[in-house]
Amino acid sequence: MQVIQLTRYGKPEEGLRPATIAEPDRPSSGQMLIRVEYAPINDSDLLLASGLYPVQPKPPTVVGNEGAGKVLDVGHDVQNVQIGDRRDYAAAEKFWSPHYIQHSAHIGQRQ
């Protein structure tokens, strides 16, 4: 799948690059698979890419710290989210991609 990856810290226009990575696996216990429908570029994303944010994942990594999307699949024991729900979410990375695995305890309200 096509994603935006942080390849190195520094100027965001130099370190953020399109990339192709494997689709995520099916969600495990306590997880859900989200189809990302909205993932803005905000100040914290640019600070992260610049190396000025408290969280600094090791490049290369997919970035994007918040968004909203539709739940496509859930792990066998997930009860607080249903397939088809639309949810918002926030974390430190990974949302500039079409699909994302998220722990169901870290999900926002139904949209």
Topology:
Elements: E1 2-6, H1 12-15, E2 16-20, E3 31-38, H2 43-50, E4 61-62, E5 66-74, E6 86-90, E7 99-103, E8 107-110
Antiparallel strand pairs: 1-2, 1-4, 3-5, 3-7, 5-6, 6-8
* DSSP strand content: 35-45%
Radius of gyration, in Å, reads 14 Å
Instruction: Provide the CATH topology.
Output: Quinone Oxidoreductase, Chain A, domain 1
User: What's the helix-strand series?
Assistant: EHEEHEEEEE
Helical stretch tally: 2
Low-pLDDT runs of 5+ residues are none
- Give the CA-based shape: elongated
CATH 4th-level superfamily: Medium-chain alcohol dehydrogenases, catalytic domain
CATH 2nd-level architecture: Alpha-Beta Complex
N- and C-termini, Cα separation: 25 Å
Structural class: mainly beta
Strand order of the biggest β-sheet: 7-3-5-6-8
Largest sheet: 5 strands, antiparallel
Helix content: 10-25%
Q: Please count the beta strands (DSSP E, at least 2 residues each).
A: 8
- The total domain count is 1
Q: Can you identify the CATH class?
A: Alpha Beta
What does the average pLDDT come to? Answer: 87
